[in-house]
Design goal:
The structure holds 3 protein chains of 3 kinds. Chain A has 1 helix and 5 strands. Chain A is an alpha+beta fold. Chain A has a 5-stranded antiparallel β-sheet. Chain A is rod-shaped and about 70 Å long. Chain B has 2 domains: 26-172, PurM-like, N-terminal domain (60s Ribosomal Protein L30, Chain: A, 2-Layer Sandwich); 179-344, PurM-like C-terminal domain (Phosphoribosyl-aminoimidazole Synthetase, Chain A, domain 2), CATH 3.90.650.10. Chain B is built from 9 helices and 14 strands. Chain B is of the alpha+beta class. In chain B, β4, α4 and β5 (145-153) form a beta-alpha-beta unit. By secondary structure, chain C is α/β, with parallel strands linked by helices. Chain C folds into 2 domains: 1-311, 3-Layer(aba) Sandwich (Rossmann fold); 315-359, no CATH class. In chain C, β10 (267-274) and β11 (278-287) form a beta hairpin. The chains are: A alpha+beta, B alpha+beta, C alpha/beta. Chains in contact: A-B, A-C, B-C. At the A-C interface, β4, β5 and α1 of A face α2, α3, α7, α8 and α10 of C.
């Protein structure tokens, strides 16, 4: 029920009485309604579903999550090394 | 015997001496003066070659006699909306589509025919531009258009223009290429990125609310095929993945040859913009149409040369190996995903529809 | 954007899978609510790479699959009417009604059009003032705001020829229905991350508390799914049952409040039929009385609809995670994507279609 993809806002405008934006996703340009995320700026990332911005996307949070994965990988490597040395 | 005093009526003819040079009308398909003018001034002036110049109801074709051979024939209907899009138009599509089909035999394209159903109201300038494109494409390929026909359908009974092209190639008997010849151990190569044509046309149609900087990949592949067959003369299969995409075409080959085709997801070439458009709409690039891509399936000892040859050709610069042919699980196409799991790649079920889920 | 592609990186997937293999000690049954998640799992094949003790069952989060047969038949009836332009997301075009589907209505001359967004349906209404334009407003909470925004826009533009045929489903009541079933085997949920993007997370702690079930808000990329599964298994192994957020780059506790306010203003909750499952109380949204004139079910007089469901289709049991598609006697035989008997085979994210397209070979079909 939820096909939505992230994109970067390249323009803001109004159409038919609604706040809209242009979103760029790897060279594909789409229009999306941003009525429910009115404080977005050009350069912000949003999640778009059926021509509608569901919410903003935090790139800082994405970075933090990826950092957790890297730490987990290190942690797992340590555990394996310890296990191998005790065998 | 006195001459008849009544005018000869050849069909529905406008009584006023206006030349219908703006749009196609029913009279253009009636077989009379208007038809002849259209054929002469619009079609023949652009498509002229010695065979058409004979002006018979048939076109003559000579076939090589220096070695035993046979003919390969293919026919196709072309309907596309919009008529013009980045990278091509219905005219270049009509020529290349059929040239490619016959070229997949590994033979020499000899000639092509072109028939038209025109909708009443089609702008003459539009028709002229399409025929120009066909003439130019045929010239590039070096193939004459030797026969054709034109009919006009009432407004609403044909979507602007339908084009049928039939192509004829000559194949030496020593050449045995076809989907049924894929053999376990063979290597599968693909000449370039998937889905360019389908997404370019969808973007040009403008109905799904996106713009994409994508060009259709319409291209005649007979030259690329010639290069491949020189480097890899024992190639078993040549196929161009058109509607239904690479996924559907590989399934056809798997069924024809009763083998299984195994591909690697991480090796499949897709332009990032095409990928993004597919994700937005919920499409899989494996099933999106191409019009200038080649699948080559050849014995493993010739794969390296085939790949090098493809990459040296203008239409094969991004050629890659995408998988191999196996004996187990005949009739299926399987893919190792980027994550290391194996899943089925089925034939496309029906029309591709954009989804929200 | 390269950053976001990292959520597809097989290296991170491997890290999460290794950790899952390290910590999983017992069998666990986890349900992913959303059909989009089912599709992503099967397309990437990550379910094959999980520890064998983890069983993923597929939930009823497919709005196409659960739209009641009667409503599909109403859609077909409206689409067949003269001077009606029936617009819909592509997903619905092949869903079988009692007799035919929207595709066949189009073939018979009905004006049925696919749109990518309901905002385009409003454009069609504006451009065709002499026609009635109906939009098939299906979806879970994720799609409610855009469906309603289209109506808001139509009203603001003064259009009187636009209406919605509403089929909105809610996730939390479905969770209750599944968890309170005596045959329930589900021990944890992966919540549909885009539903939570709109609604936030505040509806879920009462469910976790009532049933002692971990609920982890999960995204849709393979790495997001594995992250959600990992956080779920960590809770299960530790005997915890809390609501956690594994899709924090988009989901917040409070969700999209302006969207929630608009939903509150225009929709009201009601008891709803779920195709194949039955009636789930307070599980759907319909337009409030103030918007009755824009409700297609009221605008068009539809004679009594007699529905006829296939009697061999077991979509209901599949949607509740009680059976898997390959356990259906019709799977792959009478029922295929080309000739679907039920909606779970039609919808590209229905469990049956996902199994048919990606996994048929594994189950020995």
């Amino acid at each position: 029920m939820c096909l939505a993809i992230p994109g970067k806002i390249t323009a803001l405008y109004e159409e038919g009485g609604l706040k809209m934006c242009k979103v760029n996703i790897s060279g594909v340009t789409q229009s999306a309604c941003v009525e429910t995320v009115p404080d977005v700026q050009i350069g912000d990332y949003i999640i778009v579903h059926a021509g509608f911005a569901l919410n903003k996307l935090s790139t800082e949070d994405a970075q933090e999550t990826l950092e957790l994965f890297r730490q987990l990988a290190e942690f797992d490597a340590q555990i394996r090394a310890e296990q191998e040395s005790t065998e | 015997m006195t001459e008849s005093t009544y005018p000869v009526i050849e069909g529905a003819v406008c009584p006023l001496p206006l030349s219908h040079d703006q749009t196609i009308v029913m009279g253009h398909g009636a077989g009379g003066k208007m038809s002849q003018e259209l054929i002469r001034d619009l079609f023949q002036s652009r498509l002229m070659n010695p065979i058409l110049a004979e002006n018979n109801d048939f076109g003559r074709l000579s076939i090589p006699t220096n070695q035993p051979g046979h003919l390969a024939v293919s026919t196709d209907m072309h309907m596309v909306t919009p008529l013009f899009f980045p990278g091509g138009d219905i005219g270049s599509l009509a020529i290349c589509g059929t040239v490619n089909d016959i070229a997949m035999s590994g033979g020499i394209p000899l000639a092509i025919t072109a028939s038209f159903i025109l909708e009443e109201g089609l702008a003459i300038n539009t028709l002229a531009a399409i025929v120009d494109s066909m003439a130019e494409t045929a010239r590039q390929v070096g193939i004459p258009i030797i026969a054709g026909d034109t009919k006009v359908a009432e407004k609403g009974n044909a979507d602007k223009i339908f084009i049928n092209t039939t192509g004829i190639a000559w194949v030496p008997d020593s050449r045995r290429i076809g989907g049924q010849y894929a053999h376990p151990g063979d290597i599968i190569l693909l000449s370039g990125t998937m889905g360019d044509h389908g997404i370019a046309v969808l973007a040009a149609r403008g109905e799904l609310g996106f713009q994409a900087d994508v060009q259709s990949d319409i291209a005649p592949l007979h030259g690329l095929i010639g290069t491949v067959l020189q480097a890899a003369p024992h190639t078993h299969v040549l196929r161009d993945p058109t509607r239904g995409g690479v996924g559907t075409t590989l399934n056809e080959i798997a069924r024809q040859s009763r083998t299984s085709l195994w591909i690697e997801e991480s090796l499949l070439p897709v332009h990032p913009t095409v990928q993004a458009a597919c994700e937005m709409l919920g499409f899989d690039p494996l099933y999106i149409a191409n019009e200038g891509k080649l699948i080559v399936i050849c014995p493993p000892e010739e794969a390296e040369q085939a790949l090098t040859a493809m990459r040296q050709h203008a239409y094969g610069k991004q050629a890659v190996v995408i998988g191999e042919v196996k004996a187990e699980d005949p009739g299926r196409v399987l893919m190792r995903t980027s994550y290391g799991a194996t899943r089925l790649v089925d034939t496309l079920a029906g029309e591709i529809l954009p989804r929200i889920c | 954007m390269e950053l976001l592609k990292e959520f597809r990186n097989p290296i991170h997937a491997r890290t999460l899978l290794d950790e899952l293999h390290r910590i999983t000690t017992r069998p666990w049954v986890i349900m992913e609510i959303c059909g989009g998640q089912t599709h992503a799992i099967m397309q990437s094949g990550i379910d094959q790479l999980l520890p064998p003790q983890i069983e993923l069952v597929h939930g009823p989060g497919c709005p196409v699959c659960v739209t009641p047969l009667e409503l599909i038949d109403k859609a077909l009836a409206i689409a067949s009417m003269p001077d009606v332009i029936f617009t819909s997301f592509g997903d619905m075009l092949r869903v079988p009604g009692s007799h035919g589907d929207l595709f066949s209505i189009r073939a018979a001359g009905g004006d049925v059009r696919t749109v990518y967004t309901p905002l385009d349906a409003v454009k069609i209404a504006r451009d065709n003032p002499d026609k009635e334009v109906v939009f098939f407003a299906i979806g879970f909470e994720t799609t409610a705001p855009v469906n309603l925004m289209s109506l808001k826009q139509a009203i603001n533009l003064g259009l009187t020829n636009y209406s919605l045929l509403v089929s909105q489903s809610l996730v939390p009541p479905a969770m209750h229905a599944i968890l309170s079933s005596p045959q329930n085997r589900v021990q944890a949920f992966l919540s549909a991350g885009h539903v939570n993007t709109i609604m936030g997370m505040w509806e879920y702690p009462p469910i976790a508390q009532q049933y002692h079930i971990p609920i982890v808000v999960t995204g849709f990329e393979p790495v997001d799914l594995l992250n959600g599964i990992l956080q779920t298994v960590r809770q299960l192994e530790a005997g915890r049952y809390a609501v956690e957020n594994a899709y924090s780059r988009v989901v917040t506790l409070e969700g999209n409040q302006p969207a929630q306010r608009m939903i509150e203003e225009m929709y009201e909750v009601h008891d709803r039929q779920w195709r194949g499952i039955g009636m789930i109380p307070q599980s759907g949204w319909r337009l409030r009385p103030a918007y009755a004139q824009y409700d297609a079910e009221k605008r068009f007089s539809l004679s009594h609809i007699v529905t006829q469901e296939s009697d061999i289709c077991i979509a209901g049991q599949i949607l509740q995670g009680l059976k898997k598609p390959h356990q259906c006697p019709a799977f792959g035989k009478e029922c295929t994507p080309r000739n679907p008997l039920g909606a779970t085979m039609v919808s590209s994210e229905g469990a049956c279609a996902a199994y048919y397209n990606f996994a048929r070979i594994r189950e020995g079909q």
